[in-house]
Amino acid sequence: MTAVTSGPIVNSLTTGKLPRGSVWMVLIGSWAIVGLVFMFVQFAGGTKTFNLVGSLFLGTILFDILIWVLSYLVEGVRKAKDRLVTSLIATAFIITLLPLVSLLYTVVANGLGRMIEPSFFTESMRNIVDASGGVVHALIGTLEITAAAAIISIPIGLLTSVYLVEYGRGNLARAITFLVDVMTGIPSIVAGLFAFALFALLTGNPGFRAGISGAVALAVLMIPIVVRSSEEMLKLVPNELREASFALGVPKWLTILKVVIPTSIAGIVTGVMLAVARVIGETAPLLIAAGFTASVNYDLFANPMMTMPVFAYTQYAQQGAHASDFVNRSWATALTLILVVMLLNLIARLIARIFSPKLGR
């Protein structure tokens, strides 16, 4: 009898795999290759601006092609199709982020140089005619007006959402829901005109402009967002938690205060921060209702108050003899506003984590 020598068993399901981390290596390599091509074209054409968004987009497309080819050669056609679909999903995500990346890159590139100067956060624009001056008066105005708008809108919006979820039935609840939907689509300039007309009638001064007027305009824009986001978060609280509280003899108002709201506090805070981020960059209503000034004003109830969106707009729209100084201040103010929104979001996340219920095992 002849001996039969058996070779190693080959499992087609486990062999022929790309090394771990190869996907990230191909993606980064594709970005680097296209970036080098763009840099070469840039130097050859004599341009100074590097097209970051274009290089990321074309690099991602190159990644889709390369990962399919490599997977087809190493892993076979079935795994190659799987990797191609996965890479296309990742490509869609990256394309979605490209406008944000382009925005941040442009603002940082144009505003960082002026923002890092110490005088930018210590001086206002009072009696400034040269390249100096700062944003302190607009920063104070933005923080005060936004805080006042939040104080006005958050209780109203939260109580309205509690009523709609826990108590609202019948025609009144439907009418409130309809009005909230209508308020969501109100143009921001209409809110500014409303606040300006309201305080003009209350004070008898047709030219009245102050921080509180701008806060009311922003509150009109914030309330529907707070109502909608809080309503959805309260609806996500399981009814079993309410029934368990009622079974223990806890009244409904205390159940809402101690069970429902703490359970959904993280989502409510997120909705509130979305509302703040929505209004903190508004220019038209604040330009009409709060006005603008070159000096620091701490009083919300008297005299015009400058805000960062209005300051960035006026610096760009009303350029003086040295236009570059005004444009640089405008870009630096925009970057400062983005950083303020990021800081407020981090603070909100921290507050939500502290006050959310602890689910220990």
Extract low-pLDDT stretches.
none
Q: Please indicate the percent range of residues in DSSP E strands (runs of 2 or more).
A: under 5%
Number of strands: 0
The portion of residues assigned to helices is over 70%
Describe this structure as you would to a colleague:
This protein is mainly α and 361 residues long. It folds into two domains: 22-116, no CATH class; 136-355, MetI-like fold. The chain is built from 13 helices and no strands. It has helices at 22-45, 52-74, 77-115, 136-167, 170-184, 188-203, 211-235, 239-247, 252-263, 265-279, 284-289, 308-317, 323-355. α4 (136-167) crosses α12 and α10 (265-279) packs antiparallel against α13 (323-355). It is flat, with a radius of gyration of 28 Å. It starts with 21 loop residues before the first helix and ends in a 6-residue tail after the last helix. 32% of the residues are buried. The model has no long low-confidence stretch (mean pLDDT 86).
Could you list some keywords that capture this structure?
361 residues; mainly alpha
In brief:
The chain has 361 residues and is an all-alpha fold. It has 13 helices and no strands.
